[in-house]
Amino acid sequence: MAKITEDMTIYEVLQLAPDIGPVFFEFGMHCLGCPISRGETVAQAAAAHGVDEQEMLDKLNEFAEAHA
User: Fold this and answer.
1) Quick check: helix, strand or coil at residue 5?
2) What is the largest CA-CA distance in the chain?
């Protein structure tokens, strides 16, 4: 499975791992289907929600690898 990176959009992450929503929810990101998610990168989302980008990337990748 491809590694999730900070420059991937939320939409791309969801395409890569469709069941990954709970990880985003854990970081307070509840609008995964809204239009902004199609163009917002993981880095931008982390900054907008005031969460640690690397921590979020680590958890996203752990989930994606475990559910591949």
Assistant:
1) coil
2) 28
Assigned token pair, 54: 């690397």
Share of the chain above pLDDT 70, in %: 99
30's CB contacts (< 8 A; 6+ apart) are 24
| Closest residue by Cα to residue 46 from 59, 64, 35 | 59
How far, in Å, CA of 46 to CA of 68, rounded? Answer: 23
Count of all residues that appear for the chain in the document: 68
59 contacts 1 by C-beta, under 8 angstroms? no
**To the nearest whole number, what is the mean pLDDT of the chain?**
92
Cα 35 vs. chain centroid, distance in angstroms? 15
The structure's pTM equals 0.91
Report helix, strand or coil for 9.
strand
